[in-house]
Write a structure and sequence with these properties.
The structure holds 2 protein chains of 2 kinds. Chain A is about 45% helix and about 15% strand. Chain A is an alpha/beta fold. Chain A has 3 domains: about 120 residues, Phosphohistidine domain (Glucose Oxidase, domain 1); about 110 residues, PtsI, HPr-binding domain (Enzyme I, Chain A, domain 2, Orthogonal Bundle), CATH 1.10.274.10; about 325 residues, TIM Barrel (Alpha-Beta Barrel). In chain A, strands 9, 10, 11, 12, 13, 14, 15, 16 and 17 form a 9-stranded mixed sheet that branches. Chain A has an 8-stranded mixed sheet with strand order 1-8-7-3-4-5-6-2. Chain B has a single domain, classed as Histidine-containing Protein, Chain: A (2-Layer Sandwich). Chain B has 3 helices and 4 strands, in the order E-H-E-E-H-E-H. The radius of gyration of chain B is 11 Å and the shape is globular. The interface between A and B is medium-sized, with 29 and 26 residues.
Chain lengths: ~600, ~90
């Protein structure tokens, strides 16, 4: 409907959070998440039997779909994600549930849809009263199942099962079962209105290596299946009904990227020298097994950040030293001679620790990360033992997340030393482990010189650092405009921390999202960073840019940035300076955009 | 009829996966199997996942397991064993 020239709908742009990078042109495949509507209809006595058999058929159909989904999920996401569908299957097989719905049809002479809806809502309301937060959230499993039965009753097959070649999946958010059901091998990109960096959508998209964006607010209200769409998650932009000019520019950009992209292990060694000979190490951030392949593919210099809490997606791991040990050995061997830095469980806050953390009024400032570890000593001790043991099989270091001051370091250090001594007494094989502090809260920045004397290295988590320095919730779309990576206060914090590390003679690895964006990586180098860690697929483009600049130029620009009084000022300075000095490396599109 | 007191030992409690294992196990037996909160505030047919989920038994909850039927001893032992190893999550 929008393909003829002259009848094109007007181009519209949305901005969101890129969770997996790429640039594609495709067609919208709109997936609806919302609860299906059902309406009551009083039926004749003679039709009751027909409604009951419609219900039974629908339940049976839903069951068959779920069996298929369960197998797909096991293949695509691993067995540990497939278990959830076993519970969905059991719900459908539960006579108590189907009897209750059938009785409602018979007693009230209701249509099957209405009976499913009423009984479903009744269950959900009981569930909503459960006190335990983790169990209460399981209500979404019931919602998922009810939704599936209603869909089967409507006679519609979910339209997205056979995604065409250029499908861009557009949804409010994706339910776990919908994600597993998608024909993802054919999807070009995934974009959702809600969601965050750690949402299902994000994790799966990165695993599959397709572009994805979340937090697009109201894109779903405007996008219809079949609409032409451009997803540019390099710059965090979605263009609906792109104009011919936009399409042409996009195709040229895709071609240009093809030209500069093929730089893999052969040329990238994880070590890049600027034109004036300053050496920068590029390491990999990893969390999921799906990302492991990228470490060698893109030639990372070992693993700069292993986010261990993603191990906890498998039940039982938190208390199983052996399971953790095996996972850390795998990571150490993958990382090779340069080793891997294991971040202790960063639980609480917005992380996946909902299961073990009581709900808090202000979780970002609550019992999370190192605080959680110190309060749950048995969890900490198990993890530390597993890491020290695994270090005998390959090089592993530990970084303590969200250190506030020297006291946090000392307490953690004492426990680590104790566990090492215990292992020695038990004559269990162990290896050397260096200890680092994650600098991501203002108190740690201000006392960085003191902390630097207690540890072997620093890591700077820029995502959290920005959140805490600017007091802006990074998961809250409403304040996204205030989340400014290039705010002078952020740059000042980075500069101070890097200098403190330099004075103490220890390395400072920058491992937040900033390092993965070439323009920001240049600023970081200008601030004195010599060690960056990023999502592996970003290594080639960062290598390319850093190899073509002079560190001296970057330092001059960074010094000017530090004198700015607002993020707007820093950004416009960077746009002007970068385009003037390195026109072949940057375009207006790859630099932070001007704000209205 | 035989009965025993069991405790939910895994951190996450009787969530969907654990409940699924419990229900699959319970359905292997002929006997009726019930789970009750010790204070009598709630009880569930262990063969119905819906019932088991509605018990909302979080980590640390103690329950009474009651089996009745010709294979009751076996059924109770199997159930106790599942609780004992925390549904494979310890």
């Amino acid at each position: 409907m929008v393909t003829e020239v002259g009848a094109r709908a007007e181009e519209r742009r949305w901005h969101g959070l890129s969770v997996s990078e790429g640039l594609v042109i495709g067609r919208v495949l709109r997936i609806h998440k919302g609860t299906r509507h059902a309406y009551p209809a009083r039926i004749e006595v003679g039709d009751v039997e027909r409604e009951v058999s419609r219900l039974r058929e629908a339940i049976d159909q839903a069951r068959r779909q779920l069996l298929e989904i369960k197998q797909r999920a096991a293949k695509l996401l691993g067995e540990e994600h497939a278990y959830i569908f076993d519970a969905h299957l059991l719900l459908l097989e539960d006579r108590k549930l189907s009897d209750e719905i059938e009785n409602y049809i018979i007693d009230k002479r209701a249509n099957a849809e209405w009976a499913v809806k009423v009984i479903g809502d009744r269950l959900l309301s009981v569930y909503a009263r459960i006190k335990d937060a983790y169990l209460r959230e399981r209500g979404s499993d019931i919602e998922d199942v009810i939704h599936r039965v209603l869909e089967a009753l409507s006679g519609e097959r979910p339209g997205y099962l056979d995604a065409v070649e250029d499908a861009v999946i557009v949804s409010e958010d994706l339910l776990p079962s919908a994600v597993a059901e998608l024909d993802l091998e054919h999807a070009r990109a995934i974009v959702t209105d809600a969601g965050g960096w750690t949402s299902h959508t994000a994790i799966i998209a990165r695993g599959l290596g397709i572009p994805a964006m979340v937090g697009l607010q109201d894109l779903c209200q405007h996008a219809r299946t079949g609409d032409e769409i451009v997803v540019d998650s390099y710059i965090g932009e979605v263009v609906l009904h792109p104009s011919l000019a936009t399409l042409e520019r996009t195709r040229a950009e895709i071609e240009r990227r093809k030209g500069s992209a093929p730089m893999t292990a052969a040329s990238a060694t994880g070590l890049v020298a600027t034109r004036d000979g300053i050496q920068i190490s590029l390491r990999a951030n990893v969390e999921l097994p799906a990302e492991f392949a990228g470490v060698n593919k893109y030639g990372a210099m070992g693993i700069g950040l292993y986010r261990s809490e993603f191990l906890l997606a498998q039940p039982g791991v938190m208390h199983s030293e052996q399971k953790q040990y095996e996972a850390y050995v795998e990571v150490a061997q993958l990382a090779g001679e340069h080793g891997a830095v294991v971040r202790l469980f960063d639980l609480g806050g917005d992380k996946s620790g909902a299961a073990v953390v009581e709900s808090e009024r202000n979780p970002a400032l609550g019992l999370r990360a190192i605080r959680f570890c110190l309060r749950n000593e048995s969890v900490l001790r198990t993890q530390v033992r597993a890491i020290i043991r695994a270090a005998a099989q390959g090089r592993l270091d530990i970084v303590l997340p969200m250190i506030g001051d020297v006291a946090d370091v000392l307490r953690a250090k004492a426990i680590i030393d104790e566990e090492r001594k215990k292992l020695e007494r038990e004559q269990v094989e162990s290896g050397p482990v260096r200890l680092g502090a994650m600098i991501e809260v203002p108190s740690a920045v201000m006392t960085a010189d003191k902390i630097a004397r207690m540890v072997d290295f620093f890591e700077l988590g820029t995502n959290d650092l920005i959140q805490y320095v600017l007091a802006v919730d990074r998961g809250n779309e409403r304040v996204a405009d205030w989340f400014r990576s290039l705010h002078p206060a952020v740059l000042e914090s980075l500069s101070r921390t890097i200098q403190a590390a330099g004075k103490a003679g220890i390395p400072a690895i920058i491992c937040g999202e900033m390092a993965a964006t070439p323009a920001y990586a240049v600023v970081l180098v200008g601030l004195g960073a010599r060690d960056l860690s990023m999502t592996p697929s970003a290594i080639p483009k960062v290598t390319r840019v850093l190899s073509k600049i002079e560190a001296k130029d970057a330092e001059n620009i960074a010094a000017d940035c530090l004198r700015c009084s607002s993020a707007d000022e820093v950004e416009s300075l960077i746009r002007a300076q970068f385009l003037a000095r390195w026109p072949e490396l940057f375009t207006a599109k790859t630099l932070p955009a001007a704000r209205q | 009829m035989v009965e025993a007191t069991v405790a939910v030992r895994n951190d996450l409690g009787l969530h969907a996966r654990a409940a699924a294992r419990l229900v699959r196990t319970a359905n292997r037996f002929q006997s009726t199997l019930r789970l009750e909160r010790l204070d009598g505030s709630a009880s569930a047919d262990a063969k119905s996942i819906l019932n088991v989920l509605m018990l909302a038994a979080s980590g640390g909850t103690e329950l009474r397991a009651i089996a009745d039927g010709h294979d009751e001893a076996e059924a109770l032992a199997a159930l106790s064993c599942l609780f004992e190893n925390g549904f494979g999550e310890l």
